[in-house]
Structure formats: C-alpha cells, structure tokens
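Blinded run. Sample ID left blank on purpose so nobody reads anything into the name before looking at the predicted structure. Input follows.
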Amino acid sequence: MSRRESPPPPSPPPQLLGVQRGEVECEDRPERAEPLSDTEREIVQDTWGHVYKNCEDVGVSVLIRFFVNFPSAKQYFSQFQHLEDPDEMARSSQLRQHACRVMNAINSVVENLHDPEKVSSVLALVGKAHAIKHKVEPVYFKILSSVMLEVFSEDFPEFFTAEVQMVWTKLMGAVYWHVTGAYTEVGWLQVSSSAV
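Blinded prediction complete.
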C-alpha cells in the first residue's frame, strides 16, 4: 500500500511574491525607486486625466474589488468593515469618502511627478499615517496597487494599453517603495496572519 503525498502548499499570487505577511521588503528593497522618464511621466499624466474625471466612481470600484477579493483588508475600517454586499459598499458614504482620499493621494503623486521630493513627502505622510495611526500592514499597498491597475485597465481599455500598463506598474512600484520606506523609518515591526 503506497502512502499518499500531500500536495505542496499553494503559491502566493504573483503580485505578492517577495512579501511575507506583515513584513516590509527590507532585504530586497533597492536603494532607490527607479525614476520615470519624461515620456513615462507624460504617459501617466495623460492616462490619469481620463481616470480622474471619474475619480469617485473609479475609486469606489477599486475599493469594492479590493474588499471583495481581500476581505481581511476591511479589518482596518471600522466604519464599513461589516459590509459584505458590493452594492451596499457602493452606497456607503464612508467608503465613497475613503475612495476619494485614495484617488486624491494618487492625484497628488501624478501632479507632482516633476518634483520627486514632493512625491516622496506625500508618500511618506501616507506611509507613516498608515503605519502609526492605522497600523495597516504594508503588503496591502502592494495589493491595492494591483487592484487599481486591474480596474483602470478594465474601465479604460482604450487608454491602458500594454505599454501604458507597464509604465503604471513602474509608478506603483515607486509608490510602494516610498510607502514602505516610511514604514521602515518608523520601525514597523507588526506581523499578522491576517494579510493573505
């Protein structure tokens, strides 16, 4: 009688490779984020103009997908963590307000791409607030970035070509780099099993 071997544990989703629960990528963290070229900045700013015209609706779509696909993220939002139904989420004024805050933060980054110090300053504030005040695990920024790019690509396929998606992926990598730098700066140590 042969013994059955247990299957290997499932692999993490591709967007989460290199990040363990509650950890900031410190060892593999490059010394600095790769800056966007002038052409890449123009691509981001041009495509963002189309997205930002529908700021609130797009932001709500992003957060709904984020919370439906990663329900553990709702633990950080007492005002709407009880919401399960996407339609109910869409009607939540608190969720809509947070969606606007997220989109406005991205807008601040996009508007200031010509000024790396300003971008770094904006993202440091976001990172520190989420680390110290809200105690959000940094991996959620990487997850949210992926969700944003999915929604943008689906809602605006005429603008989010493969080339544009690559540029936005580079930008979101830089956003994550700056945010995790703020976590490192404040001595982020929290580890939780709830992230993924």
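Unblinding after everyone has recorded impressions. Helices lie at 38-52, 55-69, 86-91, 93-111, 116-133, 139-155, 162-185.
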